[in-house]
Design a protein that fits this description.
By secondary structure, the chain is mostly helical. It has two helices and no strands. The radius of gyration is 26 Å and the shape is elongated. The mean pLDDT is 88. Keywords: Membrane, Transmembrane, Transmembrane helix. This is Integral membrane protein. It comes from Streptomyces griseosporeus.
């Protein structure tokens, strides 16, 4: 029984070590690309874009109660 558990642990370790870095690489590349794009766009332009998006999609005012 112990031998089977050890083989399963070895297999899990090899799968984890073998597959973790290739699986994580696209995520790291995506964050690096997003960081590059954010660094290339000036802060005031990003803030202006955020304000424009908020004004375009702001919530509707709540209706007032009438008697």
């Amino acid at each position: 029984m112990l031998r089977i558990v050890l083989w399963l642990l070895l297999a899990a370790y090899l799968i984890t070590v073998g597959l973790w870095s290739p699986a994580a690489a696209p995520v790291v590349w995506a964050f690096a690309g997003a960081g590059t794009l954010l660094a290339a766009i000036p802060g005031p332009v990003l803030a202006l874009g955020g304000v424009i998006a908020w004004l375009k999609h702001r919530p509707a005012p709540a209706p007032t109660a009438t008697v």
